[in-house]
Write a structure and sequence with these properties.
Elements lengths: L4 H28 L10 H55 L6 H22 L2 E2 L2 E2 L11 E5 L6 E2 L3 E3 L5 E4 L5 E2 L5 E5 L10 E7 L9 E2 L12 E4 L2 E4 L4 E4 L4 E4 L2 H8 L6 H4 L1 E2 L1 H4 E4 L5 E3 L2 E2 L4 E6 L4 E2 L9 E4 L2 E3 L10 E2 L5 E2 L7 E4 L4 E4 L2 H6 L3 H4 L18 E4 L1 E5 L15 E5 L2 E4 L4 H4 L9 H13 L3 H54 L3 H25 L9
Antiparallel strand pairs: 1-2, 3-28, 4-5, 5-6, 6-19, 7-18, 8-9, 8-15, 9-10, 9-14, 11-12, 13-14, 16-17, 19-20, 19-26, 21-22, 21-27, 23-24, 25-26, 29-30
Helix pairs in contact: 1-12, 2-3, 2-11, 3-10, 10-11
Length: 564
């Protein structure tokens, strides 16, 4: 077989290209340190290397998840430690307050410190990390609780409702006041057959308009509309201040004279409604718009009102004790605590203030206001303002005028989202920490602040505790001390649970690091080049390539045949 010049030339060029390619490949391995750069280098090893790279990427992401979870849980754990410190101080104050050597003034000072502890507790509950609230579940952009301040001026009445349009505060007065009608019967009700001087009998009424109301105690009466200066039984007249006195708050009549006592004792039970009854003319006078006789007796069916959020229609609860104030015009009404002992009107119609008389009291936990001052109760009644042409309309002293009523207080409410809707702390935030394994990193406020055994929640406990201090309620303080202990245990339990999660994450992080090292070693064994071996091969490849060039120079020499 004849070997032509073209064949020889082609073979020489192929061999030179292969030797050069081997040398270039070794140079790339030496420059990059990698043995595998493309699938053709080693298809099986490249496939395995890709799997190892994927595993390393997963482990890196799991590591970031774990570290982020540890950071969040670390902030939460620190916050819970602060809560326990605050609870510890609150318990110390409760122990002191329960001591009988302290005075009510001392407890007032303690209440101020407890109030600040409470406010700081709310601040800790609203702890943030990277702009997210750590204790509000998946609603990380909304604080669990907010301390709001009510609007001061209540500029208008609306259907027996006082409301502000800033904070939209309402105090519901539904069914808070009413009138007796001409057909009502008022009489003295008592069960004793032999009354003594000093005994009390109850003013009672049967409603003509409401058949379901019979034998109801008539209390919270406006004195000016029901003076009851004289009282007639079977044609015999008795005088207030001589024969009896009346407590307008309770509707109780106290016996002062023997004659009045004997008349009541001689009235049979079945005749008391008629014989000890008060005629309509006794408590009613004047005419209504139709010209018919109209009673002017006014009373309160209840004197306890619920404060309501007008915007959401929800009850306002959890008012900070001691922050509530009411003003009408220049007059500021006094909040009171303890047993109410009201005043009385003497025979001359002069009012004498009671030993422990105050205007109103607040149940701070439920947001209910109880009014004791009849002037305040009367001024809160909208019908006095809505129809000034009514012949029974009165113009009491310091009566409310639009814009003059001011009610201020601080209270705790839920945070609101971007739509203005109140949200609660719900939902768990998970982090993927291993393949197929996720774990929660958050602790919800509703879960953390509640004792599962007793059902007590932190806010309610502090409300009752602070209120007991303010009112010098020894039993309430002792009860609050027990509740604080349960809440201390509840927070400690939550902190322990969070600590267990942190420990798990730390173990997982350690395992993640070990796995990453192991996978990296396997990946390196597949992908990385042995530099010493590569250098040796590269030197050999360079020598081979140089020899190939020299051989080619001898084999391929030009001759006249190349040009023929």
């Amino acid at each position: 077989m004849r070997t032509t010049f073209v064949t020889v030339n082609r073979n020489v060029q192929n061999q030179l290209s292969r030797r050069y390619s081997d040398m270039v490949s070794l140079q790339e391995q030496l420059a990059t340190g990698k043995r595998l750069r493309k699938p053709s280098d080693d298809p099986i090893d490249v496939a395995n290397a890709i799997k190892l790279r994927t595993k390393k990427t997963q482990l890196s992401q799991y590591k970031r998840n774990i570290e982020d979870g540890l950071a969040v849980m670390g902030v939460a754990s620190s916050a819970m430690s602060s809560m326990n410190e605050l609870l510890h101080r609150a318990r110390e104050l409760a122990v002191q307050a329960a001591n009988g050597t302290y005075t009510d003034s001392d407890r007032m000072y303690m209440q101020k410190e407890v109030d600040q502890i409470f406010r700081q507790m709310m601040s800790v509950i609203n702890t943030q990390f990277k702009g997210n609230y750590v204790f509000n579940g998946t609603n990380t952009r909304t604080p669990p609780f907010v301390i709001e301040r009510s609007g001061a001026d209540l500029p208008d009445y609306n259907n027996r409702t006082m409301a502000t349009y800033g904070q939209e505060l309402e105090i519901s007065l539904q069914n808070a006041a009413d009138h007796h009608t001409a057909g009502d019967t008022i009489y003295l009700n008592y069960s004793l057959s032999q009354l003594k001087i000093g005994d009390t009998v109850q003013l009672t009424w049967d409603s003509a308009t409401n058949p379901n109301i019979h034998g109801k105690a008539l209390d919270h009466i406006f004195p000016e509309s029901f003076p009851m200066e004289q009282y007639t039984i079977s044609g015999e007249t008795f005088t207030k201040g001589i024969d009896y006195t009346i407590d307008y708050r309770s509707g109780e009549v106290t016996i002062l004279s023997e004659n009045f006592r004997d008349r009541l004792n001689n009235t049979p039970t079945h005749d008391r409604v008629a014989l000890t009854g008060i005629s309509h003319n006794t408590y009613g006078s004047g005419t209504n718009i139709d010209g018919d006789p109209a009673p002017i007796l006014q009373y309160s069916l209840t004197n306890t009102f619920q404060i309501i959020d007008g915007k959401f229609g929800e009850d306002i609860r959890n008012i900070f004790p001691g922050s509530f104030s009411i003003k009408i015009g220049d007059r500021e009404f006094v909040e009171g605590f303890g047993k109410y002992e009201g005043g009385f009107y003497d025979a001359d119609g002069v009012y004498h203030k009671g030993k422990n008389e105050f205007d109103y009291s607040i149940d701070y936990e439920t947001g209910k206001m109880t009014v004791y001052n009849m002037d305040l109760l009367r001024d809160m009644r909208p019908e006095w303002l809505q129809n000034p042409e009514d012949p029974h309309h009165r113009d009491p002293e310091n009566m409310y005028r639009p814009g003059q009523l001011q009610i201020t207080f601080d209270y705790i409410t839920r945070g609101t989202d971007i739509y203005g809707e109140k949200v609660s702390s719900h939902g768990e935030i998970f982090r993927a920490i291993e393949e197929g394994i996720t774990a929660p990193i958050n602790m919800r406020a509703d879960e953390m602040l509640r004792d599962r055994r007793s059902g007590n929640d932190m806010i309610g406990v502090f409300m009752r505790y602070s209120q007991a201090l303010l009112k010098d309620d020894r039993d309430g303080i002792q009860h609050a001390l027990d509740e604080l202990s349960t809440m201390y245990d509840a927070i400690l339990n939550s902190e322990s649970e969070m600590g267990a999660r942190i420990y798990r994450f730390e173990l997982t992080l350690q395992r993640n690091g070990e796995q990453f090292v192991e996978v990296s070693a396997q990946s390196s064994a597949l992908e990385d080049a042995d530099l010493a071996e590569v250098i040796s091969k590269l030197l050999l490849a360079e020598n081979v390539y140089s020899a190939a060039l020299q051989a080619a120079m001898r084999v391929i020499q030009p001759s006249l045949a190349n040009y023929m």
